[in-house]
Amino acid sequence: MAFTSIAFYAFALVTVLAALGVITVRNSVHAALLLVLTFFSTACLWLLLQAEFLGIALVLVYVGAVMVLFLFVVMMLDINTAPLREGFARHLPVAVVVAVVMFGEMIALIGVQRFQQTFAESDPAALAGGSNIQWIARALFNDYLLPFEVASVILTVAIIAAIAITLRRRPGTKHQDPSRQVQVKSADRVRLVKMAAVRKEGTTP
């Protein structure tokens, strides 16, 4: 067996195990870290398939930016995930059935014959005579410019919504108001009280 085949199966196994860990672990931070491992292993698979741009974009965008945002949101919200995990095993059979149906639909849509073709025959970059990055750049900014801009707007809205959720008011927590802090005067914080001196009996002055 060639080295590329061994590396493919190794990365695929790590990806599947890490993805299962994302939905099975109880700690939200651990789930986010396992999702980072899933993205990184998937990026390695893209590199094996000579899709360099997708692999690097997956590491830079999702692992380097999106997952860091997820970690900050998870740690700042302090969500109690124990009630959310209740009944997971009860819904597992339904989830398995849905996953099998989705896999069958993808196979029917793509076609079994597509899996019998070699990578060189199905790679549009190889057919165009250029690199994978050049082909994606032409297709992305010429044919799919509008969907690309729409996706960027959706990601921006998601970031703003995540920041708004972290700044929501919750009972029992302390919040800072910078505008009120800069308007504070010394008289509002410190109060000088004059008290008459009282000397106890039996003490020397």
Going by CATH, what is the homologous superfamily of the domain at 7-85? NADH-ubiquinone/plastoquinone oxidoreductase chain 6, subunit NuoJ
The number of helical runs is 11
The largest β sheet comes out as: none
- As residue ranges, the low-confidence spans are none
CATH class descriptor of the domain at 7-85: Mainly Alpha
Ends apart, CA distance between termini: 98 Å
The succession of helices and strands, N to C, reads HHHHHHHHHHH
CATH architecture of the domain at 7-85: Up-down Bundle
Tally of strands: 0
Backbone structural class: mainly alpha
Q: Portion of residues in helices?
A: over 70%
What spatial form do the alpha-carbon principal axes imply? elongated
Proportion of strand residues? under 5%
CATH topology of the domain at 7-85: Four Helix Bundle (Hemerythrin (Met), subunit A)
Our Rg estimate from Cα atoms comes to 29 Å
Q: What value does the average pLDDT take?
A: 76
Overview of this structure, please?
This protein has about 200 residues and is mainly alpha-helical. The mean pLDDT is about 75. The termini are far apart. The longest helix has 26 residues. It has a domain of about 80 residues: Up-down Bundle (Four Helix Bundle (Hemerythrin (Met), subunit A)), CATH 1.20.120. α1 packs antiparallel against α2, α2 packs antiparallel against α3 and α3 runs parallel beside α9. Helix content is about 70%, strand content about 0%. About 5% of the residues are buried. It is built from eleven helices and no strands. The radius of gyration is 29 Å and the shape is elongated.
